[in-house]
Amino acid sequence: MNHQLAKELMQRYFAGETSLAEEKELRTYFQSENVDPTLQPYIPLFRYWEVERAVVAPRRPTKTRRLPRILLAIAAALLLVLVARFAQLSTAPAVTAFPVAERQPVDWSRYEVTDEGEALRILKAVLKTTSEKMKQGPAITLRELREVEEILD
Amino acid sequence: MQSFTSIADSVRDRLYRLALRMTGDGGDAEDVVQEVLISSWQKREEIVRLDNPPAWLLKMTHNRAIDRLRSRSSRSNNEGAAAHSDQCLETPHRLVETEDTLYHIHRLMARLPAEQRIVLHLREVEGMSYREIVEATGLTMEKVKVYLHRGRMQLRELLLNEKIVER
Q: Could you tell me the superkingdom of the organism this chain comes from (chain A) (predicted)?
């Protein structure tokens, strides 16, 4: 833009008659190093608008966006631990008092429980153990979640 | 159609600048933007269907900032946003202390009547068209043009009186 046009535009600028495109041209003109001496005093004004445009909202991380991720990560970790634990239990060799049949056939009739009271006692013991094992997983999860809540609080 | 989140992300800095220029306080400006975005989120499905969602959000910010100024005024009976702008610690001018002239202009801007300052800000800083300023402020087209003209002239006069600009 030549200086004469810039002067004319500045007259119209202060009269509020310039278009957005013309104001953009003025901004570019005042950013250049070749500004007419009579217009140079206006450089700070256009510089001021530039500085104002550079203001941005502070970026602050919000807890609400991070919280679910933490919980998800903890829940995933707990799930992994539980799965690993159950997998380990199911694949581990069973510790038993019964003889392991390898080559010789086992006479299972020798170990058959014939007494009704004894059978009931064994059944109760098995059910109790099963129940305890079943409760263990959720109990661990609940305990871990409580700990997480305490940390978050 | 843009999602509300992407609209909010793209316009957040503009909302903040407007709120900051109106309230003159960084903390207040953040609160205003937060309130606007939260209340807008509840109407997000309607907002994304608007012709110009950013203009609507700017209008909300403008209105919310006015509410805040009013409540602040009634609370502490202060002298208005202009005086507060001088105290604003988060303006770039405080950060760039060597640029005394810019800070001087900032103080002069703060002395302009609020509506002229807002119209000037939306035009000069945000590069908004007259129609967009009308939508954002709720002023008439005529008033926007008058305020812009008066604002620029008053700023020029202030600059002349302060001898920043030679006659």
A: Bacteria
